[in-house]
Model the fold of this input.
Amino acid sequence: MVRRLLFPFGMAVVDTSALPTREICAEELDSRDGCAPPDLSEPALNSWFKWGWVPLVVGCVVIVTAILLAFQVALDYTGHVEHDPSLELLHLVRAVVSSVALAVWAGWFVFRARNRLETAREALRVEQARLAQERWRAEQTAGLGALSRILAHEIRNPLNSMALHCTVLRRSAVRLPDVEGARVREVADVLHGEITRLDQLVRDYLLYSKGPPAVELAPVDLSELVKRVLDVLGPALTERDISVAVHLSPEAPRAMADAARLEQVVHNLVRNAMEAQPQGGSVDLSVKLHGEKVELEVADRGPGFEDPDAVFRPFYTTKRGGSGLGLTIVRDVVRAHGGEVEASNLVVGHGARIRIRIPREAKVP
Amino acid sequence: MKRILVVDDDHGAVQALQVLLELDGYSVDALESSTVALERLTSEQYAAVVTDLEMPLVNGVDVVRAAKRNWPATRVVVVSAYAHSPAADKAISEGADRVLGKPLDYDALLGELARAP
Done:
């Protein structure tokens, strides 16, 4: 939005597009102690610039005209100028024109000052809005951290109890006749799946709320890392009838990375590919060298991403019950390694692919 | 039969753990009060103590300390919603043998209890 400030002798154009579109400065900041921005209106100065020019200009015209006329009259009476009534009108006009010119100059000076003040004030507003936005984000992050810790305690405790009771159910099912026993085990499995899903949500929130991850680099055997992830996800992959084809280039068995963080990345990518294919399918996982970087790619045969550019955005999800943080965590960890990540579809509307690249000899930014 | 002390202020967790451990052949004392657990540990020896970490009044670190001070051979397993936290580190420094996260992996717990004297 471009706001045009119209003045009688000029026009200031102030670009206000940089102002935050989210209205946080009024209601939200006012509702938080210490967050409300200071009053920038400066009422006295503002009203002077708004209306003060009127008496200034009129005053200039009157005073200068009076001085010029008085000077002319004085000259007439002292005989320095021959008294000629026909010239009196001319003197009057000349005096008025001179005074108006002077007033115009004074007015232009005032309006230029006002213009500059308005521009500076607008820049200050933008800067304060930006600072308020940053503070709001910092508070959001801190709040999310506190909320996540509460969630971890208040949700994981009942989840723990439920998980243990699921195990009790499974054990009890052994003593039941086959049909009833199978039904009870089925119920226990469904419950356990939901418990695992909720626990994963809490895990994601906790990880994300800790902010950008710190990485400790050490040589990592990527083939071992991939194997560990597939071991952990193996039962879930089998249950969903999903096969995983691993393509490990012999040139890229190792990289300097944070093993635990990178394992989380691969885990999230494979889990994401798995959850995109609830009716079964396949996942291709490849690791190879790409210049000085190690490239890891996970592709599935699911429906693909609706919006590949949005998938790394926090809380963006198209899955039921997803945290919307799994791929955000992937992005943050990869960036912490000095790498990059990209999402795309194999073909339009089919098959999602995520590719990460980290320096083989990682340079942490 | 190994004697196990289970301490957790969550009634459901204590109840389920007692049932499961008894099914697996352990003798279980299940307590929801960590204060009572401290008293119990002054007079009774257990093969293993399974304790929650975050509890009101007396927390799991105090239970670990009491168990290890009175009965150094007792295996102590801490179960916590925050498996990687300063409190969990403190429990380890006080002598806890293992910290397991919640929701509890029951098979991992059985593995720990199998090592108890």
Observations:
- The helical segments of chain A are 24-30, 43-51, 53-77, 85-174, 178-209, 222-239, 259-275, 326-336.
- Residues 1-41 of chain A have pLDDT under 50 and may be disordered.
- Residues 40 and 125 of chain A are 8 Å apart (CA to CA).
- The interface with chain B takes residues 149, 152-153, 156-165, 167-168, 171, 195, 199 of chain A (CB under 8 Å).
